[in-house]
Amino acid sequence: MLIFFTVICTPVLSWAADPLTDEEKIAAILPIIFGLLDSNHAPSISGTPGTSANVGGAYSFTPTASDMDAGDTLTFSITNKPTWATFDTTTGKLSGSPTAADASTTTSNIIISVTDNKSAPVSLPAFSISVGADTAVQDALASGSADAVTTEELLSAMSGVLNGFTTQCEAALNTLYPNGLVPKADVNIGMLQSLTDTTPGWIPWIVANNAGSPKVYAYVRELPNGTRVVASGIPLFSPSEMKANFNDGADKTAILNLLKWLAGSKGKDVNGQLKSDTDFLNSHLNITYHGGAADWGYGDWNGLFKLDQWIGGNFNPSTGVTFAASGLPANWTNTKTNASWNVVDLTKLADANQDIFMLGEATDEAIDTVLAHAANGSPKGLYVQYSPPTYNTKVNSRLGIKKSGAWFGDDQLAYGDSVSLASQCAIGSTPALIALVHSLETGLPDFNYEAGDCLNNIGTVSCDLNKVTDAAGNSVAQLFNDGASAIRSRLLEWDSSGIDVFSLGSEYDLFKLAVLAGDKYRANIQYPMDKIATDDTAFYQALFADFTVHYSREGNAYQPDMGDFTDAQAALNAATTKTAIRTYTPTVYGEWTSTGLYAPPGKVITVRRTDSSDSEVKFRFNLLRESTRLWNENKYSRPRYMSSPVVTLEKGQTYTFSTPYGGSVYLGWNGVESGATPFTVEVTGVLDNPLLDAFDAVSIQSFLNDVLLTDSDWVDIKTPYAEIHSLKSYVLKSFDSQDGTTGNGYTPEDVQAYIEDLNNYLIAGNYEYAGFTGTGLQPLNDEASGFCGEFSLNSVDYLEDGTLRELCTDAIIHAKPRIQHINADINAACGALCSGNPFDSYAPIDPLGWGENHEMGHNLQRGRLKIYDGRSTEVSNNIFPLHTQWRWTVDQGLDKHPTQTSPANQEAFTLLQNAIAANTPANINHPLWSGSGTYDNAFLRLSFYMQLAYTQQSWDLYTKLYLMERIYTDAIKSDTKWSAVKDLLGFGSYPRADSDGVSGNDATTLSGNDFMYIAASNIAGKNYSDFFEAWGIEVSQMAKDQVAALGITTQVPKLFYYVHDELPAVMPTMADTIPLDGTRTWTVPTTP
């Protein structure tokens, strides 16, 4: 060995200074020479390991290592070794064959090192190995079809993905927190927004315990292509925080480590570890940011969390940071993407020279541009600030992060405020999904459904899945529902945006696998099922299929067994489809309408807007609510979720759907106040479905023919005011029973009569009773019209523009309510009929039925016509079924209705007499009104509404009240309108808006009690204060003063009209009254 060396002599070895002999000089220098000859050299290591492996395939990597010191023995070591691999410490060889259980997993931060046992180890840069799915699974992921893969293979792949997420989480947190987690309590930085991950794989970076539970304020994630993303609900880069963070050791480490991690290779040293702070701040780094200059007045949150002030050059920290005048370290450069907060130059976001993109108030386009550019091979670091108040759903759809909790609701921050890395990684959706997949792989246990955990509410059983447990105490929520709900939530988001999950990147493989597993289970479902009698595994496999239905894809096969929804799946799937075009003009309300089209199960459907209007247009399959009685005995009789998510259709974009269930097609729109323009939608791959929307004899006969010929089990009936969506069998039953006899078939005349009753009583009849006029409705009757004339409401300079308006028929004031949809199905969403829009019936629709007319009343109900607000929600609407049945009684020439016994007059009378005798004051604690339950005293309270009409000897009192209330509601929108009508309506003493800070002393906050009292008094010309007091109804002194100001002094007598368990055709008279005096009993009045 030749060694060239130079000896630098020191005074110790100065020959001139010391009189040493030659032997002494040699003896002095030899130890130095031999020391140099004996010095150790660290070994070197090199090589580029593979970063991917396949199930069943061989993986092998051996690094190259050498040591210039002869005779040194090299020893290799590894950290984060894949579980499926072996490692040779003698050669450094990493090898192995992943199994199916390892499919779709990634092992991150693998480090291979070598040492000569004399010096510190040297290492290769950290690397990752991703195991692809097995061939069958890979093909299924690529095709979106589960035909050639087994359920077991799909579940195994899901398990592998989830296990990989856990490994990645701990590796990433080790990188970001190299010295362990940094708990830091009670740091108030303000303006915090906690976040929730809706896609597993996000790593909780900043966690704090607030209100007793951990909340995540920032997530990080590395996408499969190397792009690194931070989603933060904290203004990390606002000026004061940057100043504090760069001057505080723990925070400085956390923030700088994040930036190093985002910077990818530019944030790492030669060994693949994060650079030192000094090296990183001296590195060359290019940052593109989306800042803003608008002043919101929120300090550090001025503009868009003031990226401008940090990156743009205005931030000048006082101490501790080596920043150039620009605000950045000397070698860092910045590019701003916008001139104002909402104007973004997308070309700058596609700049391949940029290292980190920092987006505040991130727009859909900005997120998409960065991610799309990264997908094309240019990984970047992306920081997204979830800055309030704007929240874009597409950000959630692309990234899988959403806000949770209220902005401003949290103000304490800690970095890594968890007990351990493992506990921090256990936050979020991943643990629930691991439990779900394990349950599906091993089979669900037998759950114990205790009576107290599964309660029956009006015929519908609901189980608390946190309380239903197996023998070991594990709940349904833990083992199944939490994980399944997380998957369903994410699929709903994609479906709502028309996004096919199979078109997304491999980071969403878990959801693709879940959809495919749902396809496998769906093919084997057999209804009906029972939560106890049915094997738990089969029951929950079917439920998993319901949770994982995904419409925005081509690959849905039809579900063979659809239970009681339809038995025509095969025929509908085989039917010849068509292309249809539908054009509609939006109304003032956001609403839906039937199209007369049906989506066949298992077929591809495309939808495209072809218009250029500005209308917001929506699309969906089915309007059925969740009415599957899942937890009732033997009532899991169809898929749980029959309606698809709502998709907003962008102009010119083609959407592709398929449904395993099939169903009627509906189009909807957002309301347009005025000037609405039509929109047009083209739908391919659909079938015609029976729709009755014209009611002449020819149209009815055509509809009847369609009903008899269609394979569909569903039909629609459409009027301008209500639409019925019914099982075909129910419509045929209605036709059959129209003549009063069932089982004898029906004639075209029966059909015509049913349709006429449907319109005249249930639909148009109720709208007319509420005072509506217009298309398909009769004009106001003589009494209501006379009222409008008497109160000078037919000729009002309403806008003080010289134009006289007829307020009782004004199309804007009395714009028809939004279309009421009615479902007639096997079950209602609750009880026998369930309110809402749509409202549900468990039986054929009866035009005269109490329940149907009750629900129509809800659609027409007005808040100011309720006594004690919510205490009358299930009461004031019942004037409509009473009126419908009274009308029918009169039309039939009967003296009284044959079956109706409501209201509960005797019970109400007795209660009132007892209260009067006890000197009970009139207020909300009166025994008639004190109950706050939904149906408390409902039919006793209804007696008040009926007695009120009796006092005026007219059913039309309520038509007048509805007209007056709608005029009143419109008038209080402006001072001009209110000034024009307040005296005409009888409310002249009331200012339009609050003037004294007392609720109820102005027209806007007037209570229902006071409105009803003043309005009824004004219409009758008599004072109702005594009558209301007898009924326990409190009215204000201001309301009494208003009635007195109208010159109304004569009191309505405190009398009760005797009507016992019947609904008479003719109203009772004064001769039929009993005094409300606290002493009289319920007896038939006698004429003196």
From TrEMBL:
The keyword Cell wall biogenesis/degradation does not apply. One of its GO terms (molecular function) is calcium ion binding. The keyword Chloroplast does not apply. InterPro entries: Cadherin-like_sf, Ig-like_fold, IMPa_helical, M60-like_N, Pep_M60_3, Peptidase_M60_dom, TCAF. PROSITE patterns: PEPTIDASE_M60 (PS51723). GO terms for cellular component: membrane. Keywords: Signal. Residues 590-953 form the Peptidase M60 domain. Residues 1-16 form the signal peptide. This is Peptidase M60 domain-containing protein.
